Amino acid sequence: MATIKKAKSILDRSLDYLLGTMIVAMTLIIIYQIFTRNFLDFTPRWTEELALLLLIWIAFIGIAIGFRDNLHIGVGVFVGLMPKNIQKKIDLITKVLVIAMSIIFIYYGFRFTFLMHGSLMAGTGLPQSFLYSAIPVSGILTFIYGVEMFFKDAIHEDFDDDAKEAMEAAK
Questions:
Q1: How many of the other CB atoms lie within 10 Å of CB of 60?
Q2: Residue 14's pLDDT band (boundaries 50, 70, 90)?
Q3: Could you tell me which residues are beta bridge partners of residue 127?
Q4: Residues 114, 128: contact at Cβ < 8 Å?
Q5: Cβ within 8 Å of residue 165, ≥6 positions away
Q6: Could you read off the pLDDT of 41-74 as tens digits, one per residue?
Q7: How much is the pLDDT for 161?
Q8: Environment class of residue 11 by beta-carbon count within 10 Å: exposed (0-12), middle (13-18) or buried (19+)?
Q9: Beta-bridge partners for 120
Q10: 155: pLDDT confidence band, cut at 50, 70 and 90?
Q11: Residues 138, 61: contact at Cβ < 8 Å?
């Protein structure tokens, strides 16, 4: 179990650093594009495409990190108002749906990635499969974090206090 926790910790830190690096790179590319367009009267054709590529990867990795950190918009207040047995059922359904969604991302993401391998992106010359590979990568990461959620008590547990406050405010 210690090995699994260590591997997950390494994965978590790696994803955080990767995401941070991608955000910095995208920001620098956009600043470079603005500078060259406004002061040098030309725009490198690769800058917009590379910034968009990074944005897509950031968004899809962000999906997995959102599940890891329990950051996605939820109906925790609503769930917190329900009886405990219904809360547990909703929690289980949510976990199953996260894993099902990740499997769909993996399956169709790989299919689409292989389908797009033959075409190139105009600005960078990279295969379009590099762009679309963010989908199955996100699916794999979300699957890992979805399986981890099964070992946690509840997804909506953090919102119990909010539900009580909402009940009191409604009175």
A1: 21
A2: very high
A3: 120
A4: no
A5: none
A6: 999 989 999 999 999 999 999 999 998 888 877 6
A7: 52
A8: middle
A9: 127
A10: low
A11: yes
Structure tokens at 122: 């105009």
The one-letter amino acid at 29: I
Contact call for residues 60 and 139 (beta carbons, < 8 A): no
Give percent above pLDDT 90 in the chain.
60
In the 3-class helix/strand/coil scheme, how is the chain assigned residue by residue? CHHHHHHHHHHHHHHHHHHHHHHHHHHHHHHHHHHHHHHCCCCCHHHHHHHHHHHHHHHHHHHHHHHHCCCCCCCHHHHHCCCHHHHHHHHHHHHHHHHHHHHHHHHHHHHHHHHHHHCECCCCCCEHHHHHCHHHHHHHHHHHHHHHHCCCCCCCHHHHHHHHHHHHHHC
Long-range pairs for 93-97: beta carbons < 8 A, 24 or more residues apart: 94/155, 94/156, 95/146, 95/149, 95/150, 95/155
